[in-house]
Amino acid sequence: MKIVILGDLLGRTGREAALKAIPQLRETLKLDFLAVNGENASHGFGLAPDMAEALFAAGADAITLGNHAWDRREIIPYIAQEKRLIRPLNFPPGTPGSGASVVTARDGRRVLVAQLMGRLFMDPLDCPFQATEGLLGRQRLGNGLDAVLLDFHAEATSEKMAFGHAFDGRASVIFGTHTHVPTADHQVLPNGTGYVTDLGMCGDYDSVIGMGKEPAMARFIRKMPGERLAPAEGEATVCGVFVETDDKGLALRVEPVRLGGRLRPEMPKV
Ligand SMILES: [Fe+2]
Ligand SMILES: [Fe+2]
After folding, report:
1. What is the whole-number distance in angstroms between the Cα of residue 191 and the centre of ligand 2?
2. Neighbours of 12 (CB within 10 A)
3. SS3 of 266, please?
């Protein structure tokens, strides 16, 4: 399968760039499946149901969230009836929505999409490694699943790489989100799982991880409360990875996708 996953959409500029890029990427790269992270789509905080609808209509097959999952409360009733929208699996038992869903691609193939949240420098949560062991014990690549996509939403690169290796060979691709800066370590791990530590955000890179740079700098320099953070609104760079899988659902290649805005463009050849 040919799959693209785009990183955290940051505010209006990120959302609009992604809405424009999704149909183009589907066409140019002959994609079978496309997923995006939507936790910062609404002015940097959360995702509103109409924004999710627009992303599905543009051609996203699945949307993952993260620590900002509930910032727009309207998403709570919506997520209960939309299984293509996925929040962290290791949220407390009884949390609305699902942390893992089997999503049907346009050609009928079955793709398991799950999100786990890391615990270093993050809210305390149940163990993401144990939660993933449980999930992949019940649902196996090849056994009715054509691809397995794991979004590891975490702050620390060490925890992200450890997670990648822990499930190498049992997922098609494991990708990091949350830190909003694309890493250059995209690779196929030894047992065949595609991996990247962070996809990077879809947002304005003349910013501090997507937010306006002046108030963000002031927080560090002055150590005093200041102006509220708001998304930087210059042209967004759409960032993500392209993964091609074999008939076992393991990765043949992982390559960066970047277009628009300030970062150097990257587009895989198909
Ligand atoms: Fe984020
Ligand atoms: Fe996050």
Report:
1. 28
2. 17
3. strand
